């Protein structure tokens, strides 16, 4: 079965968190930074996935978070509700600057910083506000710190689990004591098992899609960044005529697009 209108993946992290590596591990190709800024914020990518049960071209949105409080405020805004509802999976990336160790020993117990906890709490709050208890998706927390076979990550795993995220170490390989995959193999496994259909319309012939998939894809990929640009520019009242083409500025598509559910 082809999923024609899949929900989105939103990958987030600080600018130094190597989001590009995570996206490449999942999709097989690295996203291209914005040519003018060198940033990945506002970039869209695509994951072509094929399983025994479905095929889909899943859009991957990328956002860089420099201020968690400001980011949360943007996404709690009513204008962001339908955008958040379009996200089927959240991937939060963090690195060694976000890790705490119980001692200086290389194999010391590892836990995560208050900043990481605050960001995961912010995501949970954003999803709950937009979707209430109806959201059915996947949330992954990907640790990009250098691998150390001797260290324990049980504490970090428990904190992530308590906040609704599955902890993934990007360099982990093999299986755990329960025979489950580790690392990015586990991440891809979790994403492949996710529910991507935006509505039951994916099970039927899409007779209403007269604009073609290219038009639909362009519109859907623009909606998040149009929303963010609108929120970041409080003086933008939408009085200027929209030529329908859009314009990129610092990683954001600067025209607002209304998301229409298929």
Write a brief structural summary.
GO terms for molecular function: protein-macromolecule adaptor activity. With 262 residues, this protein is α/β, with parallel strands linked by helices.
Structure description:
There is one protein chain. With 262 residues, the chain is an alpha/beta fold. The chain folds into two domains: 8-202, Rossmann fold; 206-253, no CATH class. It has seven helices and ten strands. It has helices spanning 19-27, 68-76, 81-85, 114-131, 154-162, 183-192, 212-232, and strands spanning 8-13, 44-50, 55-64, 87-94, 99-101, 110-112, 138-143, 166-169, 248-249, 252-253. α5 (154-162) links the parallel β7 and β8 (166-169). Mean pLDDT is 79; it is low at 200-213 and 230-262.
What characteristics describe this protein?
262 residues, 10 strands, alpha/beta, 7 helices, globular, Rossmann fold, single chain
Quaternary state reads: single chain
The amount of helix comes to 25-40%
Specify the CATH class of the largest domain.
Alpha Beta
> What is the radius of gyration computed over CA atoms, rounded to a whole number of angstroms?
19 Å
Tally of discrete structural domains: 2
Examine the coordinates and then state which fold CATH places here, giving the name of the CATH topology of the largest domain. Rossmann fold
- Portion in strands: 15-25%
Spatial strand arrangement across the major sheet: 2-3-1-4-7-8
Q: Which architecture name of the largest domain does CATH use?
A: 3-Layer(aba) Sandwich
Number of helices: 7
Order of helices and strands: EHEEHHEEEHEHEHHEE
Mean model confidence by pLDDT: 79
What is the overall silhouette? globular
User: Care to count the β-strands?
Assistant: 10
Low-pLDDT regions: 200-213, 230-262
Calculate the terminal CA-CA distance, rounded to whole Å.
Answer: 17 Å
Please summarize the sheet with the most strands.
6 strands, mixed
**Global structural class:** alpha/beta
